[in-house]
Amino acid sequence: MGEVTNVMEYQAIAKQKLPKMAYDYYASGAEDEWTLKENREAFSRILFRPRILIDVANIDMTTSVLGFKISMPIMISPTAFQKMAHPEGEYATARAASAAGTVMTLSSWATSSVEEVASTGPGIRFFQLYVYKDRKVVEQLVRRAEKAGFKAIALTVDTPRLGRREADIKNRFVLPPNLTLKNFEGLDLGKMDQSNDSGLASYVAGQIDRTLSWKDVKWLQSITSMPILVKGVITAEDARLAVHSGAAGIIVSNHGARQLDYVPATISALEEVVTAAQGRIPVFLDGGVRRGTDVFKALALGASGVFIGRPVVFALAAEGEAGVRNVLRMMREEFEITMALGGCTKLSDITRRHIFTEADRLGRPLPRL
């Protein structure tokens, strides 16, 4: 293995190392995987308008998220089943995030529990929540996360049913027998049965609440004091409803292109959501971020920060904790160089004028809200 010089190189290493079922689970998208490709390609259609002859000797990338100070606007998305990638799984990711001074979001479907992840030491951690049909289960889980020191809930709102991930159907995807959904182990919901489809799709159909609606955001606020980020908003209409519901923030996400295919890339949906939120709550971007340049583009379009998912899992598979640390280091260095070459010394210097989008080229006005 030669030296890894960007986060994308970890994917090929992970593909070599992982069993096909595991790699396909992490790598695939829904149906035609159009949105999976588009999440990346849309970034390449945004160009820079760098400013020159600005003193960039000192660059400050620090920011705060929901009042918590972090070292850079690059955070870790929730990804399920991390011990399928590496024996240390979520423990390794938690330590790497903490060392980098940034946020880790733990998946509901983690292979390590909220208590186990908390035991790795201090760190700013968010908890991603799927709402189960049995609300007592949800209440218990939210309380456990809060007690374990988690700082916010990222409520996934785009998964009333699981998207059709054809690789998982072909592979009859199921968790390896040595692993469980650790947060649900004591509730008899920790195992996933073999199925003539994707085992995960069957699990979701049986357990996840399809009746979830905006009133449940209010319900969630009634059971926890943690701020709630709504993860899975890609339209202005839903951005307004999120603000109205009392959400503390929005994560623009298409679930890594794993749910509804032919939705826009998140970077393409971002500006519409930011405009609709009117600065009342922060908007974050999740999906397709692989370069420091991508981070800059997202911030120029109004994001307060970004979340990365697959790069973390692939690096974890390749090199464990060291791989995740390296992903965060490379992303940080690339972002710092992009800021310097763009003529920005702090995040508030990054403006819409620093980029040029397809809409700008076509002279189209932004969607009317």
From TrEMBL:
Keyword Glycoprotein on entry: no
GO biological process, one term: symbiont entry into host cell
Annotated binding of glyoxylate, by residue: Y25, R165, H255
EC number: 1.1.3.15
Enzyme class, first EC level, given as a word: oxidoreductase
Principal subcellular localization: other
Keywords in alphabetical order: Flavoprotein, FMN, Glycolate pathway, Oxidoreductase, Peroxisome, Photorespiration
Gene Ontology cellular-component terms listed: peroxisome
Biological pathway: Photosynthesis; photorespiration; glycine from 2-phosphoglycolate: step 2/3
Protein origin, superkingdom: Eukaryota
Compartment list: Peroxisome
Protein's name in the database: (S)-2-hydroxy-acid oxidase
Organism: Brachypodium distachyon (Purple false brome)
Name of the coding gene: LOC100842068
